[in-house]
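Thread: quick sanity check before group meeting

JM: Hey all, I'm pulling together slides for Thursday and realized we never actually wrote out the predicted structure for the chain we discussed last week. Dropping the sequence here so it's in one place. If anyone has concerns about the input, flag it before I start.
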Amino acid sequence: MSGSTPRPVRRRTFVLGTAAVAGTAALSGTASAAAFGWSDDGSNYVVDTGANLVFKVSKTNGDLTSLVYRGTEYQGYGGMNSHIESGLGSSTVSIKQSGTTILISVAYGTLRHYYAARSGENNIYLWTNKADTSVSATRYILRVKKGLFLNDEPDSYTYTNSTIEASDVFAKSDGQTRSKHYSKLRVMDYNYVGWTSGSVGLWIVRSNHEKASGGPFYRSLLRHQSADGGGLYEILYYGQNQTEAQRFGLQGPYVIALTDGGAPSSSLFPGTLTTSWADSLGMSGYVGASGRGKVAGVGISGRNTAYAYTVGLANSAAQYWGSARSSDGYFSIGGVLPGTYTLTVFKGELAVHTTSVSVTAGGTTTLNTIAIPSSNDPSNATAIWRIGDWNGTPGGFKNADLMTYAHPSDVRAASWTGNVVIGNNETASFPCYLWKDVNSGILVYFKLTAAQAAAAHTLRIGVTTAYANGRPQVSVNGAWTSAIPSPPTQPNTRSLTNGSYRGNNHTFTYSVPASAWLTDTGQYNVLKIDVVSGSGTTGYLSAGTAIDAIDLLA
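JM (edit): ok, ran it. Output follows.
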């Protein structure tokens, strides 16, 4: 079956699964069992799910070497298999059947990786246990043959395009940009990623990411399509624009699911999938449902109902999150490993409250209404003027939406330069990103009343991340210049150019003396914002920062 000729695909489309479309999941990938079982072809363990799926796993290194669905081979491009990272090398690979489940175990040093198949299902369940840093295992990549699924979306590219950055960002002839980094989505925004041809769907359904890092708002590559084929990813740890240390332990399951063109079943989604059938398989680090607990909150007061709120749990061993109900802030987070966690309430992506919570196996930790102190939300401070709002994102600023799926040089981007006048569509006019070599020195014009001009005021600039220690230094009317602020802790990799503004939210504050203001109330005061840093290179890779909000307090 692995050598069969791929059928022609008449309709080629792409899909990134999101929570918003989860309810439309059409097919479960389950069929009546026919010939469930496994064999050994000498080089591979060959598993027939008894439905329409046959796959092979190398006995040498644990690579997925074949993925045949309805007689068509989907696995592989460029002579490469599907595997953890770029392949493990010589490993100990074993197989066993337990009733209606087949488990393939791969041992490589301290790493353990597993493939499981269930009778009558067109799914492969995967777990990965990275115990320490001795093994580089940060992702699983499913490599897919060229020509079976095509797209011309942000997360694709071809080798005929012009490379504009780091050999992984490309410009098309029409000026639009493409890169595998441009997924558009945060982790919490999607349940699955993949493609459909109309008659066949190939997907990876993500795990709950409890052993991943970066939290619910983290963005990383999910999928790519190029001239030689495509790739689907489950990112277990990704260092680019990372805000947290790596976590270790068993992560999964994540699922390779094949369908007759529809979305994967919602029963496979993180938070929905149950795997009691795996409890007795003996996987290293596996904790079943009975060994987990739950956190539930009856509500959150002090919210700004214009924003969505998310509740996160995190410690050095695991992370979880859940959405707070818009009506009252109720939340419930299940499947949590026992331990003590920092609970964080996010307004948008801005942390506005933290506390500690403990979870026990089989128990539910119920929390009374969480009250967010007014002072914890910077939006509650009275401002003379404000550009944007405090929500931990550059949403609403110029080019903000585009930057999650395009390079700043993209032809669709509005000019990164241009000054701003308070009262004249100031948020949409202010660029979401500032760079030392691109638009440093932007001017903001505003008027003050006589009483306002007679007093000192605090200026605040909130940022969501920075590249190369870029940070704002300000001056007012050429009469007063702030000190250069110290750089806050931020990721040390690219961010602004590869689709992510997510770093560590930080607020810079500047005490502007009354002597800096103009006393003529008919004249505009001029605030100048420069980006300073001794690092970075040129252009869009010069030192830069992403803006959350800017305001002048009363």
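AS: nice. Confidence is low (pLDDT under 50) at residues 1-15, 18-33. The first helix runs from residue 426 to 429.
JM: adding both to the slides.
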